[in-house]
Amino acid sequence: MTIANRYDFVLLFDVKDGNPNGDPDAGNLPRIDAETGHGLVTDVSLKRKVRNFVGLVKGEDPPYEIYVKEKAILNKTHERAYKAVGKEEELTGTDKKRKGSASAAHEARTWMCQNFYDVRTFGAVMTTGVNCGQVRGPVQLTFARSVDPIAHLEYSITRMAVATEAEAEKQDGDNRTMGRKHTVPYGLYVAHGFISAFMARQSGFSADDLELLLQALEHMFEHDRSAARGHMSTRGLYVFKHESELGNAHADTLFGHIQPKLKEGVESPRSFSDYTVTVRDADLPAGVEMIRRVG
Q1: Domain presence at residue 112
Q2: Does residue 14 lie within any of the structural domains?
Q3: Which has the higher per-residue pLDDT, 182 or 174?
Q4: Over the range 117-141, which residues count as b (16 or more CB within 10 Å of their CB) and which as e?
Q5: Which residue has the higher pLDDT, 135 or 167?
Q6: Does residue 172 have a pLDDT over 80?
Q7: Vertex 58, ends 223 and 204: CA angle to 5°?
Q8: Is residue 249 in a domain?
Q9: Are residues 17 and 87 part of one domain?
Q10: What is the chain's mean pLDDT, rounded?
Q11: What CA–CA distances, in Å, run from 32 to 21, 78, 179, 187?
Q12: Does residue 98 have a pLDDT over 80?
């Protein structure tokens, strides 16, 4: 059974002495709004952590396989879908642009939704090479933005080794490699999410899938540790459940019921205790229920 209600949610998470989402086009510096100084984390980064969590706890077995994963060759996965629905003969066509008829693509699309968690959750464009159609996912995430402007710190680091003999000869055996490391001393970030019951009906996103998504948002940072990311934690997950598929209130109205704010007198936040989070759940619009998963 697919979900029958609309959901919106607010995700709060923080980082301490780490780089939550480096920008490869800027030397892996923490992403930042150049005008305001607020830190940013892309929706793609958050979805990656959800995918990794699902793969970890479900073993990437159907119906919880992961479509977009490290070293994946997407057209090979599309070919699997055609073979599974008995349309293997359409893979031998001579069309260099795209293979597969409209009817075959529809069947393959359905098979992909049934077997791949991230396809039926976030959607996917599967029209390259072997055509499996497009899926508009019921779950959409925004960029996460820090509550306050962040500081960006840069450090020099030394590795007591080199990669090649040529480098060692240049250093007369000193064998040191210099590098740079970028961190945010502390940042509290807010992301918003939207879950459409209408899109869920099209992709097959179920109540069990929803529960798995919320578990991932709660625990994904616990299984994504690295020296580069420092200490990251989910600090709040507030889910607004609507009575109807269409929804009973505007999302922005609901998001206003969660207000993280820096405490008075604190100029340079360095921990979550430097903030207060005001949660107004007594005056919610009619037909909306708030579910506190974290916070």
Answers
A1: yes
A2: yes
A3: 182
A4: bbbbbbbbebbebbbbbebebbbbb
A5: 135
A6: no
A7: 115
A8: yes
A9: no
A10: 94
A11: 10, 36, 22, 11
A12: no
In a domain, 158, yes or no: no
Residues 17 and 101 in one domain: no
Burial environment of residue 238 by CB neighbours within 10 A (0 to 12, 13 to 18, 19 or more): buried
Indicate whether 217 and 206 sit together in one domain.
Answer: yes
Q: H helices then E strands: how many in the chain?
A: 8, 16
Distance CA 223, CA 143 (A): 21
DSSP state of 97: S
pLDDT: which is higher, 295 or 111: 111
Domains in the chain, number = 2
Q: pLDDT band at 94, cuts 50/70/90?
A: low
In this prediction, residue 169 carries a pLDDT of 80
C-alpha–C-alpha distance, residues 239 and 9, integer Å:
4
Is the Cβ–Cβ distance between 133 and 113 less than 8 Å? no
Q: What is the DSSP string of 20-83?
A: SSEEGGGTTEEPB-TTT-EEEE-HHHHHHHHHHHHHHHHTT-TTSB-SS-TT--HHHHHHHHHH
Give tens-digit pLDDT for 40-49. 999 999 999 9
For the stretch 263-272, pLDDT in tens is 999 999 999 9
- Find the domain containing 128 and state its range: 43-137
Contacts of 230 (CB under 8 A, 6+ apart): 15, 16, 17, 18, 19, 183, 184
Average pLDDT rounded to a whole number, residues 88-107: 79
Q: Which residue has the tokens 């899938």?
A: 209
Note whether 54 and 103 are same-domain residues: yes
> The tokens of 196 are what?
């459409």
Backbone dihedral angles phi then psi of residue 57, each to the nearest 5 degrees: -85, -25
